[in-house]
Amino acid sequence: MPWQNALRIYALFGLLSAWLSYQLPRQRLSSAAKSPASPATAEGDRRNGARYAIFIALITFISNGTSTHLPEFISHFGLPVAVGMLWGFGQTGARLGEVLAGPRVTSLTLTRFTALAMPLCFLLGLSSTTFAGCAAGFVLGYGAINGLVTIVKATLPLALFSAESYASRTGLLLIPGQLMAAVSPFAYAWLNHRLGIIGGMWVSTGLTLIVAGLALAMVREAGKAQDERNVEYPAAAVDQPIAKNNLAEE
């Protein structure tokens, strides 16, 4: 099938999604009056909001740039382009594993795991200079990470902020990530041209270390907020199981 037909099919699915979204009810739900947040809570929300926006923007930059130039990375190590299918296997397998794990995996736990796995995965990719087979492991592993990131993106705000402000706050904080999605393919093309494939991988590895640091900071602050809330309101829980926050579909 020509690639033009593939794009037409993709466009039709986009139109179908738009039509289904248009059918959703439009009424505004009433909400109970909320007391204003304390200065400490408001300051924590601002810090976590900035961290979350940068966290998602960097992940989007790395993921989109890497996936766009994935065939170039694979061919650089002499592997068949079909190895790129491992990305999809990893992505699907990771999401299936998260579903099977159910409430045992919380959004904060998944955020910590995903962020720490990113630099390790890129170090595996850098090992491809010694063992070409590591490139296949990188494709599979980062595909899995990319699948988990979509879940983290949707569920982490529920652990950081109030559920009432989820839609408005998350929509605003995801804007930098959307901008990075548009910029990253061109940025990675420039990086690969100037620094080579391996040089671009080292840049990505450095960025993933920043991502890991941001994730650990958010998880730590959210954990402290949860402890404080549980002392005041024992029945409350900030870090809800992901199974109850079924918002991970893109």
TrEMBL record:
Protein name as it appears in the record: Major facilitator family transporter
Protein keywords: Membrane, Transmembrane, Transmembrane helix
Transmembrane spans: 49-67, 110-133, 139-160, 172-191, 197-219
